[in-house]
Specification:
The complex is a heterodimer of chains A (693) and B (92). By secondary structure, chain A is of the alpha+beta class. Helices cover 27% and strands 38% of the residues of chain A. Classes of the chains: A alpha+beta (693), B mainly alpha (92).
Chain lengths: 693, 92
């Protein structure tokens, strides 16, 4: 108790500093001083914690109790910096390595229950690990500390009370201290007892742990693994697969570390989270790997791989939970696009061009958040397959000209194009404060240059973006970046006549779309920022058309193949060319009346995540165009990319006379079917284009 | 840097010297961004404790650089006195 704590007159019995000691002895002495300090500090903190612990719920709402809680947590948190060294790739702190430290109980589980009405998105278990952890590996209940903090900042600060999805505490509601200890002791005993990964997994999988206990064990395993991070591998860019046994040896070396032993270095983020996913899968979780971009502590951007899994909260509701070393990021949703939005808010960075999902040792499929889609569209990325199809349909390479305006949902786009030059301005604002949209605001100014001819075209452009990225605290982070876009297109055709009037046309072509992302930092010495990612994909295709002798209609058959350059896996990370789509399309257009043409287009494509079918009907008559399109996606990866049905309708009107103009309305209804949830999306908008010159 | 801006602005608004502002920012940089924000949340909510927080950070920084008995004792006494005072306020 504090009253018994030594006053300055009764100084704690810290070891005397040696005078004239050998260097090693001095170091040992420092370690003793450190140990003594933390031991005595725990006594001080425990006393203050016991006051909070014994207080009832009403008292805890009083400013005096909040002030005490704030001071208590600050004391503990600042000691974390003293006691541990800043560590992992993205700035999380390494778990403490001091041996045989006992767990410090700041506030017991009883009062954690009192705090539960005040929720915070923060995963305080991570900090608790740093503050209280130790060789026992028992970072006691993180939510207790978390609750104290939320009490301290309630109503006045950056508390994220408007952020529903992230409530890490939810997962540990109802977990008793004993249950928590059981989970962590099971993990610990498993690591100690097992000789290799196989026996560790068997021991862990055979333990009767609840889902929450398993998640706690995984979090702590992630914490231990972060201490084995292999910085040499990162520095030397040796991205290789690390065996499960070697990973386990690393964990064991950390857990059993003594003064005379060293921690064995394992791998980097991809290796560590691969190991976590394998362990999670063994524990019965649906688990996978996810890559993306994260903002590091020094504000730089780096690629990262973390784990994802499906976990039930105490109410039994399933949701996507990301596991980033020893942090859990509950997303509150089973909609994976939405979950990625939450991950981006946590990472404080948009994973443009870098967001892939997959299983350990398996392939990777690209997945996108809503923010990534918005940025890609604003930067002129439409997909090489679509670009090639457009050119083949028109039989020449063209670019729209004039002044265009498009307004839909939260996005407004203005495009001005003349001859070789085009400018576009896109504004997006998340006025509804959608918690799953990681962008609060986006202004994008794109300039592009088109040159070439009817058969060869180059489209080179750059987009300057001002982004306002949401964090998990209701705040935003301003970021400027430049995204370059390069499109290279080639098409050609040969005419074959049969008989006097019949006409066969063989068209073929290729489109390549490439992009780079450069983030402009305030302190960057590079004028165009630091290269932070890129993409490259290409499509080759051919089409054969037949026009009948009376010229009343045309039918066609087309094939295309699209590939993308990407990394081979989450561990080895070699650059490979990955085929993402094989498409077969058929269609016809019929002149049904003077100046009235009806067109039908149907396609079926094997895509990287399943199959896509598309059916489109168009009606063009004097001044009026109507198109109705239906698309059906059958996904083999419904957890991440939904099966869906989408119906789109567009009506365009071209008034006769001058200036040449086009106005239209468009709308779509889309229903997504994820593995365990379905969502509907409606889009309605208007657009106008006018050729003023 | 969003948090640095907010933190610097907050500290300046509370008359923290330029030198100390730099110190606090650097001290916070030793933490992950999440923990930094959480610590800032505490300071922001309790500006009345700012002098204590500042002194505590300085003492812990010094102790981290050179862990001596004297520095440990200074921290422990500082924490003990502050927490005792706050505990007394909860009882008043």
């Amino acid at each position: 108790m504090l009253e018994q704590y030594p006053t300055p007159e009764q100084k704690p019995q810290l070891p005397e500093e040696g005078v004239g000691l050998a260097h090693e002895e001095v170091l040992d002495n420092s370690a003793e001083v450190n140990r003594g300090f933390h031991m005595h500090e725990r006594e001080v903190l425990e006393y203050a914690g016991s006051v909070l612990d014994e207080a009832d719920a009403e008292n805890l709402k009083k400013p005096s109790f909040k002030a005490l809680a704030a001071a208590l947590v600050f004391c503990a948190a600042t000691s974390a910096s003293v006691e541990s060294s800043a560590g992992t790739e993205r700035g999380t702190l390494e778990p403490l390595q001091d041996e045989q430290q006992n767990v410090t109980q700041v506030v017991s589980n009883k009062n954690a229950q009192n705090f539960q009405g005040i929720q915070t998105p923060f995963d305080w278990s991570g900090l608790a690990l740093k503050v209280e952890g130790g060789q026992q590996g028992v970072p006691k209940n993180g939510f207790e500390v978390m609750s104290i903090l939320s009490l301290g900042v309630d109503g006045k600060t950056l508390v994220m009370d408007n952020y529903e999805p992230v409530q890490a505490a939810q997962f540990y509601e109802g977990v008793t201290k004993d249950a928590h200890r059981t989970a962590l002791r099971t993990l610990w005993k498993g690591i100690h007892s097992a000789e290799d990964y196989s026996s560790f997994k068997t021991l862990l999988e055979g333990s009767p742990l609840s889902d929450q206990q398993k998640l706690l064990a995984l979090q702590n395993l992630g914490g231990y693994l972060s201490a084995t991070y292999n910085y040499d591998m990162l520095k030397n860019e040796e991205y290789v697969v690390v065996s499960d046994d070697k990973m386990f040896e690393g964990v064991k070396s950390f857990v059993e570390k003594t003064k005379d032993t060293e921690i064995l270095r394992t791998g980097i983020c991809g290796n560590i989270h691969t190991f976590l996913v394998k362990t999670a899968t063994g524990l019965g979780f649906d688990a996978w790997l996810q890559s993306g971009s994260v903002r590091r502590s020094d504000d730089a951007v780096s690629g990262h791989v973390w784990a994802g899994l499906i976990a039930k909260d105490p109410s039994g509701k399933e949701q996507v939970v990301f596991l980033d070393y020893d942090k859990i990021i509950p997303t509150g949703t089973m909609n994976y696009q939405d979950a990625l939005g939450v991950a981006e808010r946590y990472a404080e960075q948009i994973s443009l061009f870098s967001s892939y999902v997959g299983a350990p040792g398996g392939g990777r499929a690209r997945v996108k958040s809503a923010a990534q889609k918005s940025i890609e569209t604003a930067s002129g990325f439409t997909g090489s397959e679509r670009i090639l199809e457009d050119h083949l349909q028109k039989e020449i390479i063209t670019h729209p000209e004039g002044l265009g305006l498009s307004v839909s949902d939260a996005t407004t786009e203005v495009v001005l194009s003349k001859d070789m030059l085009a400018f576009a301005f896109t504004h997006m604002n998340d006025s509804e404060n959608n918690p799953y949209q990681s962008l609060s605001n986006m202004d994008a100014l794109r300039a592009s240059l088109n040159f070439g001819g009817k058969h060869i075209g180059i489209d080179a452009g750059a987009t300057l973006l001002n982004l306002s990225i949401k964090d998990v605290g209701g705040g935003t982070i301003a970021q400027r970046e430049i995204i370059t876009h390069l499109g290279a297109d080639f098409i050609n055709s040969h005419n074959f006549t049969k008989g006097e009037y019949e006409r066969f046309v063989v068209q073929y072509g290729a489109s390549v779309e490439a992009g780079t992302r450069r983030i402009l930092g305030e302190g960057s010495r590079e004028v165009f920022g630091k290269l932070s990612g890129g993409m490259l994909e290409g499509t080759v295709g051919a089409k054969i058309l037949y026009t009948d002798p009376a010229n009343t209609g045309t039918v066609y058959l087309g094939v295309s193949d699209t590939s993308r350059v990407q990394l081979s896996g989450f561990e080895e990370q070699e650059t490979i060319l990955h085929e993402i789509s094989q498409k077969l399309s058929v269609g016809a257009s019929v002149n049904v009346h003077e100046a009235t043409v009806i067109g039908f287009d149907a396609s079926i494509a094997d895509v990287e995540y399943g199959q896509k079918q598309n059916l489109k009907t168009t009606l063009t008559t004097s001044g009026l165009g109507v198109d109705i399109e239906g698309e059906r996606v059958s996904s083999d990866m419904k957890m991440f990319i939904p099966s869906s049905e989408k119906v789109s309708v567009g009506v365009n009107y071209h008034p006769s006379g001058s200036p040449i103009a086009e106005i239209g309305v468009f709308g779509s209804v889309k229903r997504d079917h994820y593995k365990n949830t379905s969502d509907s999306d409606y889009t309605v908008g208007v657009k106008a284009r006018i050729l003023v010159w | 840097m969003f948090m640095r801006d907010k933190l610097e602005q907050f500290l300046k608004e509370h008359n923290v010297s330029d030198e100390d502002v730099v110190f606090v920012v650097n001290f916070f940089l030793e933490f992950s961004h999440t923990v930094r924000e959480q610590m800032f949340g505490i300071i922001y909510a309790h500006p009345e404790q700012l002098p204590f927080f500042l002194e505590l950070m300085k003492k812990k920084h010094a102790f981290k650089r050179e862990p001596t008995r004297e520095r440990a004792e200074e921290i422990l006494v500082l924490e003990k006195n502050m927490l005792e005072k706050l505990v007394a306020e909860t009882k008043s």
